[in-house]
Write a structure and sequence with these properties.
Blueprint (H helix, E strand, L loop, with lengths): L1 H7 L17 H31 L6 H25 L8 H35 L4 H4 L2 H22 L1 H5 L17 H39 L6 H40 L7 H25 L1 H11 L15
């Protein structure tokens, strides 16, 4: 009987060198499983709707929306990767050493690309609000696509290089079967933290503070001269209001991003000596992943085109001929 109980605590009961399972109360494990599974399914579904919307409807093919598409793609993959976190609830990895490394590399690439896309979104809003006359000529679809591709390629190259040793010998740092351990060189880890978090977050905050200051100034200027606006100028004012609304919406996205990701990166920054228990660590990780689920919800509240496109997708009207030409705005 004792041997059976002892075997039940092992990831691989048939192996003497198996890792031990993390023993938690059944209720806690089930709640964690349900929460993570729900967030994963919701994240994948909502971001898939964003991807289909922007990809399908031609009216949505704008530089800003392509940046949102890149963010939705990274968030979509985050939702898929969360299923691996669900599998790790009891502390056992059953998918082999190679999949462990692949999962970690993808996690790093997607996270870094998401942060890079946020920087591009901030730069897009900075040019749109602070230099609106040059925005149409400077921020073109082609340039935005090139920037997005460069963002993903640089992220893949840098993190592939950083995790090269782990890729060459998967499982080299595991102490037992059923473990998923990745070791990164200290200097490489610090460099990654600076380039993937500290520098991008600083750029995002600085750019959006500038956008906020200019937006407030422009709003006051428009209110003070509203009586003298001609029909021709009113078109420009409407365009400016549209840009300001987009800036506010994307500002909400960025603020939510900072709230959800900063605790995770701060824990990473403080290192292994940080005073966190298992529950606190789990909360920080869940908050980090939950951000990917929140972005489409923000679009649903702030963008009428997203609500309209969801209706067309759910009712399968996008399968009709020439549905991509539908007036969605």
């Amino acid at each position: 009987m004792m041997e059976t109980l002892e075997g039940a605590k092992l990831c691989f009961p048939q192996l003497n060198s198996s890792c031990r399972k993390t023993m938690r109360p059944y209720s806690e494990s089930m709640v964690t499983y349900i929460i993570l599974s729900s967030i994963s399914v919701l994240t994948v579904t909502l971001n898939l709707l964003v991807i289909i919307s922007i990809s399908h409807f031609k009216q949505l093919h704008t530089p800003t929306n392509f940046l949102l598409l890149s963010l939705a793609v990274s968030d979509f993959f985050v939702g898929l990767l969360m299923s691996f976190q669900v599998a790790l609830i009891d502390g056992c990895w059953f998918l082999g050493d190679l999949m462990c490394v692949v999962y970690t590399v993808l996690d790093y690439i997607i996270t870094s690309s998401s942060v890079g896309t946020m920087v591009l979104i901030s730069a897009d809003r900075y040019v749109a609000i602070c230099d609106p006359l040059h925005y149409p000529s400077e921020v073109t679809q082609k340039r935005v696509k090139v920037c997005i591709c460069m963002c993903w390629m640089c992220s893949a190259f840098c993190h592939g290089l950083m995790l090269k040793d782990n890729l060459q010998q998967p499982g080299r740092y595991n102490s037992c079967f059923g473990e998923c351990v990745i070791v990164i060189d200290y200097a490489a880890g610090i460099t990654d933290l600076v380039l993937s978090f500290i520098v991008p977050i600083t750029v995002i905050v600085v750019l959006y503070i500038r956008v906020f200051v200019v937006a407030v100034f422009q709003a006051r200027a428009m209110r003070s001269h509203i009586a003298a606006v001609t029909l021709q100028k009113s078109v420009k004012v409407t365009a400016k209001k549209s840009e300001m609304k987009a800036a506010r919406t994307l500002g909400v996205v960025i603020v939510v991003f900072l709230i959800c990701t900063c605790p995770y990166f701060c824990v990473t920054l403080t290192g292994p000596d940080t005073l966190l228990n298992a529950s606190s660590a789990a909360f920080v990780i869940c908050l980090f992943y939950f951000n990917s689920c929140l972005n489409p919800l923000i679009y649903a509240f702030c963008y009428p085109w997203f609500r309209k496109s969801i209706k067309l997708i759910v009712t399968l009207q996008i399968l009709q001929p020439n549905s991509c030409e539908t007036n969605i705005l």
